[in-house]
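Journal club side-thread
Mid-discussion, someone asked how the predicted structure for our own chain would compare to the paper's figures. Pasting it here so we can look after the session.
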Amino acid sequence: MPRQLIAGNWKMNGLTVPGARLAGAIREAVAAAPPPCDLLICPPFTLVGTLAHVMLGSGVAVGAQDCHAKPAGAHTGDVSAPMLKDAGATAVILGHSERRTEPGEREAAVRATAGAGRAAGLGRIVWVGETLAEREAGRQEAVVAAQLAGSVPEGFPGSGVVAYEPVWAIGTGRTPTEADIAAMHAMIRRVLGERFGATGGRVPILYGGSVKPSNAETILALPEVGGALVGGASLVAEDFLAIAAAAA
């Protein structure tokens, strides 16, 4: 079985000095006691280069939280996948609910950025998930299946990861039941298998949504859960490392 991946999404948090200090604390702890999983931290664009330098040789990868679909051009305020690669990133999160909601990214845009990430040699973490209203209406599987169909490009297995986060659980302290998480991961695995065949069975599927040390062991032990996408807890070294220690 492949090692689970614990990815930290720092979102719009972190200045140079405290960000480097947090990354340094993670590096030191990993050197002293290597976790039973792969680690990835995804800071804001401004910290990618700094943290890539801090983590050089540590075994902890550094990624980003988004990229533009084009490699270069007149796109003021955007950052391309080749720029992220040049800064030291090895992966990028794409189509997070906050990107889908605030800038209004749709499936086609996420698919395009996933293609750009592949072209630049970055691992892609494509986000999917349902709102509370969609779950209460019993539409969670249909919604997530549509997101997978529209957002995941061809050639995804091999360097692609899916992250499932129910929107209503992100940062709220609420989590679905173990049965709900297992059911959604099983559905995602089925959809990937139907589309990609045997290689679809090897795409890691992360769970996210208020993952913390107190629930990590239970969640990470569930079928088809290939790791976690961690939000707030990734900003506290002890919490992030405790989640990593709970990996299967």
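Post-session note: The two ends are 10 Å apart (CA to CA).
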